[in-house]
Amino acid sequence: MSRIKIIFILIISLMFTSCWNYRELDQISTAAGVAFDFDENKNKYILTTEIVTITNYGQGQSLILPEYFNEEGDTIFDAVRNLVSKTGKKVFWSHAKVVFINKKLAKKSILPILDWIERDAEVRPDMKIVFVNSERARDIFNTTNNLQKIVSFHVYDILESSKNISKYPNINLWQIINEIQSDSAATILPVAYIVKENGRNIIKLSGCALFKNEKLVGFLDDHHTKNLLFIKNLVKGGIIPIKNALSTGTDISFEIYSSKTKITPIIDDKLKFNIDISIDVSLAENSGEFDFIKEENLIKLKDFAEKYIAQDIENTLTKIQDYDVDIVNFGKLVKIKNPSYWKKNKDNWDELFKYVSYSINVKLNIFGTATTNKIIKVGK
Amino acid sequence: MKETISVRQSIFTMIMFIIGSSVIITSGVDAKGDLWIAVIIALIAALAITWVYSKILSIKPDKDFVDILELIFGKFFGRLLAFLFVFFAFHLGSLVLRNFGEFIKTIGLPETPNSILMLLCILLAILSVKSGIEIIGRGCELFLLILLFLVLLTIPFSIPEMDINNLRPMLYEGILPVLKGAFATFSFPFAETIVFLFILPSTNKSQYFKVYYTSLIFAAVVLILLALRNVLILGPETSIRNYFSSYTAVSRINIANFLQRIESIIAISFLIFTFAKINICLYASSKGLSKILGFDDYRFLVTPVGLLMFNFSIIVYENIMQMVEWATKIWPYYSLPFEVFLPLFIYFYFITFKRKKLSN
Fold first, then answer.
1. Of all residues in chain B, what percent carry a pLDDT higher than 90?
2. Is B238 in contact with B249 (CB distance < 8 Å)?
3. How many structural domains are present in chain B?
4. Which residues sit opposite A61 in a β-bridge?
């Protein structure tokens, strides 16, 4: 009796263990990234997807190459599903890393993209969105490089390396959604440029695009973006160059090791924000005759650099104020600090934000001078 | 021979029951970022009402709930009241079964018919309920600690994704939404433990207070931690927009591209937690029904009741939107008579009219 039972259990467990939605690896086409364009004349979304193909050469050797398909649809998901008519297999989205969008779509609204990525169970919400500064977002796939043949993965690598340069933001999609849902309703996206170099097109990421509500309103260049990231407490590394420091004719580079920003709102009759930034740096470059490593000079340099950076950041803030987007989410800070004030004033926050003032306080901790402790002296 | 479970097992079973579907479906979303405060308020209310539940069972500690009702209200009215509670357990069981089906359908198997998933689950539940309350108790004892370890393990892993500003400012919209959230959390899952009136008489010692209070407090701590984790990771807006916010929150975990995509842990634990809850509801309703109909053994009723539960869970909602709408907006009011009014009525009727008679 018990033997029959065991046999029965084995038959059931071995034969009926597959599920309805079971898909073999060779029956799916894996997407690495996708570019969305918007066609105003046809009022349609145009989608270009980058699909990873693996060619086997035998003996464990294989080549991974991208393949591109265009498709259009009335809605985002319509376009996504229409792809089947070209790929033959349903596209598998769980490994997709990057979404590219063009200007027309960004000016119209990025909400459809956000909704598709967040709602769909297969698409993962840690994808990145990149704004492509080109007529069509799909032009990004016309670039070549030998570092990483899959363009989306290449852009993803560049984004992840943002921690070494901090000149473009690296934000996940869900952070963008959170920022758009917040009271200031503003967010930033990294901007990709397609540049010609040595007769081929390559990608360069630089600066950020500003979004108010769900629409594109402007751009910040890489320099301002770094300052913005300082304020948003997102800087993890990078270089602070100072040309002609203290009018000595000597150029200085600080390498950022870590940075911490604390913003405290001061709510009187006029709104003011105290921004305290503490940056750990090392003196990574001293390219000139003047020796800043000497202690008295270093103190002077530190003083100078703190004021210089603070002034620089203030310029960026003025620029952001001109765009009238509360990209730093100062509103949320006011809301936390004084909920009743926020309740009264949140409807005319846009007006208030134009006239807020800042007091920026930079603290530079120079903890080293890389590997040398003397400058190179030119022998005479 | 009467089947018994130990006090420890009934505590574990009740914790499994309370955490049950709440591990993934958040109730009390009105409270938004202040959900954890709502859970604390709900816990206090639940401690008060479960005191009444324990008192009802303590009227005759060696008797079943249905017997006690018959003692107080006579044969006809006692059984009528008991039938209401049986229906409540039955209804709750079907709703949880539907949650189970909808979750798998939404997350993993969109093309699989819901009914197949639910049928497999209910068949397994019928099998385990037929094996008796001892088996359920032992199963919960075995699984609870492992599952809790896995679920709570996600909290330290998700610290890098957390933002303390998601909790601030506290009580921004005043206390009213928090009270609403507390009300919802009270009715689902805390006061659903009314179902245990059918089960606790099987405990080998009559320590009803101990069972109720230990498991309520323990489960509440877990729920508070989960509520905090979800809000800290997702932020108030996103956490109330998602059907399964725990699942979404955990899917954010990514430690150095190495430890990621661990939301399947949450999915698996949800399946086992809800399975335990379905078991308990099925056991309570078939046990109660057999008592009402005057049978000694409940086992032959398990299959029909289970299959009815399965049918009911299919027709009860048309889609997941209705499920969420019902669970958040209607369930608190619907369950109020079963969870609060009727127990209070039973207990006060007993102390005013029947206490002297029965103690003689």
1. 53
2. no
3. 1
4. A58
- Report residue B203's pLDDT band, with 50, 70 and 90 as the boundaries: confident
Q: How far is A177 from chain B (nearest CA, A)?
A: 8
Judge whether B344 lies within some domain: yes
- Answer yes or no: do A20 and B112 touch at CB < 8 A: yes
Residue B2 domain flag: no
Per-residue burial over A215-246, b = 16 or more CB atoms within 10 Å of its CB, e = otherwise: ebbebbebebbbbbbbbbebbbebbbebeebb
Per-residue model confidence as pLDDT tens digits over A313-324: 999 999 888 888
Scanning every residue of chain A, which has its alpha carbon at the shortest distance from the alpha carbon of B231? A178
CB atoms B110 and A335 under 8 Å: no
Task: Single out the residue of A379, A361, A117 nearest to residue A260, CA to CA.
Answer: A361
Q: Which residues of chain A have a CB within 8 Å of the CB of B109?
A: 19-21
Alpha helices in chain A (DSSP H): 2-15, 76-82, 84-87, 103-108, 111-119, 151-160, 173-181, 222-231, 295-323, 330-337, 339-345, 349-354
Task: Give the pLDDT of residue A17.
Answer: 60
Going by pLDDT thresholds of 50, 70 and 90, the confidence category of residue B174 is confident
Encode pLDDT of A97-123 as tens digits: 999 999 988 898 989 888 888 888 778
- Contact call for residues A32 and A153 (beta carbons, < 8 A): yes
Identify all chain A residues contacting B110, using CB atoms and an 8 Å cutoff: 21, 121
CB nearest A339 (choices: B109, B169, B238):
B169
Q: Report the CATH number that the domain containing residue B66 is assigned in CATH.
A: 1.20.1740.10
The parent domain of residue B232 ranges over 7-359
Asked whether residue B1 is domain-assigned, the answer is: no
CATH 3.40.1580.10 fits A223-380, yes or no: no
Tens digit of each residue's pLDDT (9 = 90 or more) over B279-309: 999 999 999 999 999 998 899 999 999 999 9
What is the CA B37 to chain-centroid distance, rounded? 20
The answer to whether A174 faces chain B, any CB pair under 8 Å, is yes
Give me the pLDDT at residue B248, please.
84
Q: Could you say which of A20, A332, A339 has the minimum Cβ distance to residue B109?
A: A20
- Cβ contact, residue pair A181, B168, below 8 Å: no
Is residue B55 included in any domain, yes or no?
yes
Is the pLDDT at A16 greater than 70? The verdict is no
